[in-house]
């Protein structure tokens, strides 16, 4: 039997308090995104393999759930949602006024070794900004993130890097794109010596530049660019643009009171990033709880025109883990709860109970009708689940169109007319 | 390129107004379920094939997305959620006080020919009641459904049947379980003659009984049971119990004002139903927009103890289709929206804008900051997306710590101090 009750490795049921927390987090994320002008998008969970193979990066493609459908087409469970959102943008939203601001919450799948905070099926809450130049798009993303993390009371900080700076220098050394990806992949894994050695293929100066970039302060980058003026001359404009954008962006965030720091070796795993990139951290987890950045021109990979784009994905499972480590229980605004207890479960009682229930709900009260058990059992159920009131209905109440209502905190019980019930509750 | 933009057959992107409607419907469903005491549950999208093969019925097993993972285990994309919820109940919730009330919203997958309102990836919003005897559990389900459909303003009605009545009679004729499933399957497809012929294998009287059940009024069923008193004697108690429960249940629903009718030939496709079953209909679609019923003892299929259970699944895609056919746009309570328009997108303007944005949001206003375009362009964007206010920030506003605020309905523009902005908006 126990075997039948298992879920596949790396997946799990979310139940009880954890499920309520999950709902609270995803609802809060959506509300924050919405009040900042973002619109929802829902894309399929299964996509053609090709969509992700094109540009998600070697790491992700290796760990995808891939299968053939009955017509022989190769499908995949999505490992992330950005590729799908870009596809949907090109298909259905390209003529909408820019910027296009989208949010999503969805499960993703990666066939990796499960670890603490890492599942094979995991949940991402994400934002995408399409068609907006400069740092404003990134600022939108941070503004929503900051509001979200503050609302759920999770202390956090951001680290910021810029993969575009690495790419401009590597372009100058004529390092091909796939080789650049490999070097960035090594830096992402913090295998710095391996990355530097790999770059040696393109000369000692290339290795030296990579080595410097890995630890260079943001304030010194412009000077470094000047030191290699001759080498990077074809890329100087974009290089200086990326450096200045990053400095300006960090200034803005600090001015707005965000806890943010520059990390020169931050490059992130996904091959499609082009400029500013970032991760969200907490003190209690090694792994980041969110990450993203600019991925300008991902549209061209699918045959569309170039487009500025940026976005973030927050790992909901990791946020839940961080909250539990910190013993934070960000609670849904609590509603008053009333249990309606029937001393008999025949037809007339059920009908009366659901009329009472409906009356209470119009006053914003959560209700639960209980029947078919002894009063003492039903009262202990109501206490266990922290109901504020027990509304008791026996034959007297039913015949006289009244209810007995007991305040479970004070123990005070009253016998009142049905139409007075909301008035009664308001007065307490 | 176009090829790259396709989604797999039977799947789709939900974007724009449709996505906002989707969010509104699923949020409303969750809220209604919650205020009636139901708790969320989130189960994996991928499960072991065996979970569904055990009891979902031949029809569903045939149309499942099945694949092997890299370790050779046979997995499936869930075709429905009830089996997963029951598994999760047995694994993690069996010691909780009964009744256990659960709600979910999730995508399901069936490899069938796509038709109007039928997708291969589709969304179900569902309720499950575990551990409650009698019609109260079914009433809970209807109470939430009725509130949900009323809140989204979708005119609807319910049809009710009872598959337990069929099963008691067929038991009396010693028809084996899988043969019963086959007969019910034919009735479900409205192939009544085929069903009656199939029953002939078990004698003319069996065929006659099936034929009668297909069209017998609920009021006459008790008499019919009496006519076959000798035959059904071992099943009489349960048979009369099912008949009386169904009559009582329909009475209760009518008394509460629900539009409900009994349909003798309603049996539904899933093999696990045991008693009262139902579907939700609208005038504009042939297919039902929801369905469910009692599935007592499904727990035993997974080795658990017997448990009373009942539940429903509502097809969100079909609800969306019905609403669009009826041209109903149940709108989210509209929030006031303000666009903040920057005449310059340098650092100081962005910082000031997001401070203004934050101020407006504390007053419950949805904001969107626009920059990097001509004022006329930004104003037309604000008009197109029905913003109520444009808050304009140029150098004068920035330097004097003020804003120009324009009511886009009336055209009235004022120049006010930043700290007066919420007061100003409240007064209009």
What report would you give on this structure?
- The structure is a homodimer of 428-residue chains.
- With 428 residues, the first copy, chain A, is an alpha+beta fold.
- Chain A folds into two domains: 3-325, BirA Bifunctional Protein, domain 2; 334-426, Rossmann fold (3-Layer(aba) Sandwich).
- Chain A contains 17 helices and 16 strands.
- In chain A, helix 8 packs antiparallel against helix 9.
- The longest helix of chain A is centred in the first third of the chain and has 20 residues, at 16-35.
Quick rundown:
By secondary structure, chain A is an alpha+beta fold.
Topology:
2 copies of one chain form a homodimer.
Chain A: H1 16-35, E1 39-40, E2 46-48, H2 49-53, H3 58-62, E3 66-68, E4 74-77, H4 82-93, E5 100-109, E6 121-130, H5 136-151, E7 157-162, H6 163-172, H7 177-188, H8 192-200, H9 204-213, H10 221-227, H11 236-255, E8 260-262, E9 276-281, E10 290-294, H12 298-301, E11 309-315, H13 316-325, E12 337-342, H14 347-362, E13 366-370, H15 375-384, E14 389-393, H16 395-400, E15 402-407, E16 413-417, H17 421-427
Parallel strand pairs in A: 1-5, 7-8, 12-13, 12-14
Antiparallel strand pairs in A: 2-4, 3-4, 5-6, 6-11, 7-9, 9-10, 10-11, 14-15, 15-16
Helix pairs in contact in A: 1-5, 6-11, 7-8, 8-9
